[in-house]
């Protein structure tokens, strides 16, 4: 994803948070001072709060939009948008009209997904950490987030058929997983602060003096530095051939130069 687009989206989310909650504050203050707080003012207030909440979740999703887990960020943004639409409908529609339950279900499911993915995306900022305790704790917490979301969504989509009349065990299990979710959310980031990753091993590089005559004191000699991935290939080939890595590099350069010269002659 283009970094400029991500940066602009993050700024937009921040502006959305500021504007939405500022507007909600203005509406509340005007209503309190004016003494007139009717249905329309309430709907405006709820709309601004809804936009502010959607902007907060969007900002959480965008935290990893420029990383390898960007697919999770995209899913979170879609969930936030999916929650915003039925939320707006529920605020402004006539609640006496049919299909109210459908809109409530859609808002509930999308809202749970948006919040759960926002939670997960913030924790995924630690996905690059290499320490085993952090990686295990992160994985366990992400699993707990997913289970909590599923346990909340099932009663909504089944209209209470799950867990049914005897839901005591269901909600006990939910409580245990939710506690583990909160525990991981607190412990893993704190652990990441105090348990630092070991410094990465320096990337191997190959430096050699290469010249057509093979003389170290050649004034036209070239000092060559190659990326680590190429260096590993050269080293593997040198080990297989039983020759110094500089010899392999020079031979490959000569072959490449010969091919280039032949192509130029054609």
TrEMBL record:
Domain of life: Bacteria
Keyword Membrane attributed: yes
Listed transmembrane segments: 12-32, 44-64, 71-92, 104-126, 138-157, 169-195
Keywords attached to this entry: Membrane, Transmembrane, Transmembrane helix
Keyword Transmembrane helix: yes
Name assigned to this protein: Uncharacterized protein
UniProt source species: Microcella alkaliphila
């Amino acid at each position: 994803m283009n970094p400029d687009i991500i940066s602009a989206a993050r700024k937009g989310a921040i502006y959305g948070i500021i504007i939405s909650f500022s507007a909600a504050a203005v509406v509340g203050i005007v209503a309190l001072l004016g003494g007139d707080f009717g249905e329309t003012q309430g709907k405006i207030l709820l709309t601004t709060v809804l936009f502010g909440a959607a902007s907060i979740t969007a900002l959480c999703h965008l935290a990893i939009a420029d990383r390898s887990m960007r697919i999770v960020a995209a899913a979170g943004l879609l969930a936030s948008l999916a929650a915003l639409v039925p939320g707006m409908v529920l605020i402004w529609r006539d609640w006496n009209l049919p299909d109210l339950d459908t809109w409530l279900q859609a808002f509930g499911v999308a809202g749970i997904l948006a919040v759960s993915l926002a939670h997960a995306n913030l924790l995924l900022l630690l996905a690059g950490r290499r320490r085993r305790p952090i990686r295990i704790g992160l994985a366990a917490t992400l699993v707990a987030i997913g289970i909590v979301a599923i346990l909340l969504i099932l009663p909504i989509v089944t209209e209470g058929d799950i867990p049914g009349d005897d839901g005591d065990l269901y909600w006990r299990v939910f409580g245990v997983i939710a506690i583990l979710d909160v525990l991981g959310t607190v412990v893993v980031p704190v652990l990441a602060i105090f348990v630092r990753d070991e410094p990465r091993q320096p990337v191997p590089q190959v430096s050699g003096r290469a010249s057509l005559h093979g003389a170290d004191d050649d004034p036209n000699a070239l000092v060559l530095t190659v990326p680590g991935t190429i260096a590993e290939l050269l080293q593997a080939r040198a080990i297989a051939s039983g020759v110094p890595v500089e010899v392999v590099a020079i031979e490959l350069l000569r072959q490449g130069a010969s091919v280039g010269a032949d192509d130029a002659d054609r």
